[in-house]
Write a structure and sequence with these properties.
The protein is mainly α. 61% of the residues lie in helices and 4% in strands. It is built from 15 helices and two strands. Helix 3 runs antiparallel to helix 4 and helix 5 runs parallel beside helix 7. The radius of gyration is 23 Å and the shape is globular. It starts with 6 loop residues before the first strand and ends with a helix.
Length: 275
Amino acid sequence: MVRKKYHYFRYVDDIRVFANSESELQRAMVDIIRQNRALGLHVQTGKTKIVTGEEILQLVNERNDEFSAIDYHLDFGDVDTAEGELKEILREVMAQEEFNDRHFRKCLNGLKKANSPAAVPSTLQKLDELQPWAQTTHEYLDLFTRSHFSIKRRLMEFLMDRDRNIFAWPEFWAVRTLVSAAKLPREFLDWCRSRIGDPECHWNCRGQYALVLGAHGDLSDQMLVQDLISSRENEYERRAFVASLRDLPEPGKGRVLEQLGRDYPAVVSTLALVR
């Protein structure tokens, strides 16, 4: 696609091609189908279509006036009005046959500003479909992790399901959200133990799992993280492992941090935070 000079963009299995004419797009679609078939893959015709620039702009601009009015209410402190309007849009989005993730995310951002949990059930329902926007999703859920126990349960189910937990970006944000959750069950902490030692787990995710074990695990979990610090090759992962030791009991904590400072001068700032 790049070699043939198409304006081509891809995220996982979601492909967009832009061109100046419908005939050029038809040729691009044929090339995509042929190349995928050569790899044993098949384009879903039901999800593949050519749309005009006008249709794209209409989709992008749809409800702009409504969301602008909501932003106005939020900016001037009229939270109740904004929340009511966002709830109404959210109901319409969830009732539509074709899920409009763009409008859903705008609702999340507005409800986040309003500190409203109105979208928590809908967000958990659409968790898999929202994976490309995991940061937006989980920054919203993080506001209510302690007050809505369903968040904790659903995120743990997602993370421990290998058929759903495939990509590092959503995994990172889901684990990060659970760091601030209330008490986590032993079953999930054992899952965290397995992930911090898994070389196939992204280093950024391993760092978050270490923080979960430091915040929610027992002394054996903290000692496991401590033992693995020396094998961390990525500096940011090592800092996360060091940060997870903040709840180590004294007087052992002081000795451990002092030794880490001698062994890894680059983590001095992290050690100061832990202390």
